[in-house]
Hints:
Blueprint: H1 3-6, H2 9-21, E1 23-25, H3 26-33, H4 37-49, E2 53-58, E3 67-72, E4 79-84, E5 88-94, E6 100-107, H5 114-129, E7 136-141, E8 144-146, E9 149-152, H6 164-172, E10 175-180, H7 181-191, E11 201-206, E12 210-216, E13 219-220, H8 232-235, H9 248-266, E14 270-274, H10 281-294, E15 304-306, H11 313-331, H12 341-349, E16 366-371, E17 390-396, H13 402-410, E18 416-417, H14 420-425, E19 430-433, H15 440-449, E20 453-457, H16 464-477, E21 481-484, H17 491-502, E22 508-516, H18 520-524, H19 532-535, H20 538-541, H21 543-554, E23 558-566, E24 610-617, E25 622-628, E26 635-642, E27 645-650, E28 657-661, E29 673-676, H22 685-699, H23 709-726, E30 733-734, H24 740-747
Parallel strand pairs: 4-7, 7-10, 11-14, 14-15, 16-17, 16-19, 17-18, 19-20, 20-21, 22-25
Antiparallel strand pairs: 1-3, 2-3, 4-5, 5-6, 8-9, 11-12, 12-13, 22-26, 23-24, 23-30, 24-25, 26-27, 27-28, 28-29
Amino acid sequence: MGFAEEISPAAASVAQVLHARGSATISQLVERLDSSRPTVKAALDALIQRGVVDELEENVATSGRPASKYRLVAGSMLTLGVWLMDNRIGFSLAGLDGAVLRVHTGALDSTLSREARFERVVKAANEFLQGDDPALVSVAVTGVVDGGVVSRSEMVPQWANFPLKKRLEDVFNCDVLVNNNLNLVALAEYSARSGGADSSLLYVDIGQAVNTGLVIDGRIHEGVGGSAGEIADFLGAELNAHAGQADALTRTRRIALSIGAVCAVVRPECVVLGAADLVDGEQVEEVKRELARMHRNGAPSIPIVGNAFGVESALVGATVFGVEQLVQRLFGAPAVVRLKPESVSAVRAAFPSVALSAPVGSQRRLRVAVIGAGARSSFALEVERAELNAQIVLVCDPHPLAKQRVRQQLGRDIPVVKTIAEVVDADIDCAFVLTPDYTHADISIALLEAGVAVYLEKPMAISVEDATRILEVAYRTRTRLYVGHNMRHMAVVRAMRDVVTSGVIGDIKAIWCRHFVGNGGDYYFKDWHADRSKSNSLLLQKGAHDIDVMHWLGGSYTKAVTAMGQQSLYSQIEDRADRSDQLMGEFFSLENWPPLSQKGLNEIVDVEDLYTVNMRFNNDVLASYVQCHYTPDYWRNYTVIGTAGRLENFGDSDGGVVKVWTQRTTYSAKADLEIPIVGDERGHNDADRKIIAEFINFIRGRASIDANPINAWNAVAVGDLATQSLRNNSELKTVPELPEKLLQYYANNQAISPMR
């Protein structure tokens, strides 16, 4: 943009005065600029010719002829504000006076590769602009931004080392400013307060971790490499919201220490505490009390307040920053922009999660029910970690041994009821549905209908029809639904996902997964899992995990599937038993080997123990999945092949490694890049802790979710259709399409968007 260089200094000065005053006559401009009338008139004519200023007639005195007044044409130079998160996108269009002309937010598929993601952003921006040409684009993005390049981003690893500024400038042919979202949140909070251009403000995000944004003398402080405010870079997990078993007091002290350390150096006029949504007032008071306890008597104090903006704050900040920078470039002088209340309201209205899909209580202790007291129920105890502020108050299980199992699995006596109706009557906030797969649909639907937020263990259901019913009920009732695909939080999957989204192996073309289910005989052939009327097939119970992971790595969903499978071993074993009074841990043993020596299989064994599935994704990635339930070892092996390399994991828990080959070679055990798998030392237990925290924060309205129910539905659809295929001569099956309203609702973090 060369506007400031194309007009005279006199014209720039005139435009600056009009921006500050709103409008002025020639006489007022002459007086303000201490310039001659011909000079001011020539400057106005040049600005009118450029379409930046217009003239209106107005009586400025009680008598006499009207004098002409001049004002900036607010829409002549437009700023496009852009907000980019992992699964959301937002736009604002504002004029030179800071008035927001229109706003829109929508969903952004978090599984897209970096190029597909960029193309989707550009397409959505052009649709929003409707032919308008912005003079400047201001982008809020999650991650560390250095010179317009997103040097790293934990939430959106696709952006790592991506030259977002340059790529967008090539598209829009104007200046593009890219900044970290917390920096822009800090600027939004600054703009909402009365501080002048020489004041400062510290914004402290206390959502998922403790990080800051800082405005000094009215300007964003970015620091070396754009990394100012990345407190975790130095203090690591010690400041993480969910580190270890830290209690609420320890967390409050960590927040207070981080604030105190920054304030001791910067001394801002104000400290704002915030998160993804408005912070509860009691949180602010707790931190203030802790800082007061630490504060030395006689030392100057700093006001600490809650945030003025919620989830809309980053887009407000991007808008404010863009207009300020545009004005400075046009008129050669700094500007402090404050959006008018109606503009703030317009931005806020585009974020339905502020007002719709209301979260369950912000700070009070949540009342939790566990549905099913089986072998999986003990993992629900993670919900009682101090920082989650929730308690299991009820268990629902009709089994005669339910009370005994509750003591065994949950470690204490908890009231037990037999029906979902009794759960609903008990004023429960949320429920963990941990029952056999064939009961998932009816139980979760009953809870959703009653307004109880649901954590539904995978698979979502055992048929695509039942999975669809669940989606529709959660949509209709606006009750929050979460499906427990915990492998998305496993270290091995995260490591592979980071490699894929970094682009180091190019565009993905093929994914293979071999699942060696060494414990299959004990896990799945001695209880209801072996009965196809209750499990459909083990492509649901066991394969749903892997299908979902392959979809995530491949950046798309399956559109066509075919499969083969057979009862190749366990159906030959004649020793059967009724184990309905036992839990899996009571009959599991590594000594049960070789497989044909197994005893006491389920009375009905009609599911397959060997599967081969072939899939074609919507983006034409080809994927294959094989599953065997009588291998001597128990782990998963993924291979992902791209146009520039391939990755493969060896081991899938702590101590394993993800290897990446990017150079042409013959066989080489040593890869070009080797990433140790750190964490998950107890299988997926570490991931369980993370998904429970994510679920609680989600139903409180503080976080988006990594695996939304559409992901879970697609895993069920493939498992169900693959089973139909293998039982019908490997017939090719096509995955049906969901209604657009459901896709938008779940992609929008289970909120209704007012913009269609």
